[in-house]
Specification:
mainly alpha; elongated
Length: 105
């Protein structure tokens, strides 16, 4: 009975995560962030062209927006955990399918 509840909880969590990711994709969050980056780049190009016309000394660093670094202990730890899960899952699936291939041949 207890294992059944744990399985339901895991399935519910995975489904909820899927829904969240699907909704953010459907609402266009990623496209909006890319649009904002494009807008910043367009403004930088306009500044660059104006500076060229005025004959100012040009340095590329003045026109490139620095990306913010959001790395912290939590993000590094979650990335490590995610990579570990990925490698473990990959190994498990390869082993499983290799064994199934041996049995079917």
């Amino acid at each position: 009975m207890k294992g059944k509840n744990v399985a339901r909880l895991v399935i519910f969590c995975l489904f909820s995560l899927f829904l969240c990711l699907y909704i953010t994709q459907a609402l266009g969050y990623y496209e909006f962030t890319n649009y904002k980056k494009t807008t910043l780049t367009t403004k930088a190009i306009e500044r660059f062209e104006a500076d060229v016309k005025e004959g100012k000394k040009i340095d590329a660093k003045d026109y490139i927006e620095e990306e913010k670094n959001y790395n912290n202990l939590l993000s590094k730890t979650s990335l490590t955990i995610s990579n570990t899960i990925e490698k473990t899952f990959d190994t498990l699936m390869n082993t499983l399918f290799n064994e199934l291939a041996k049995v079917t041949n």
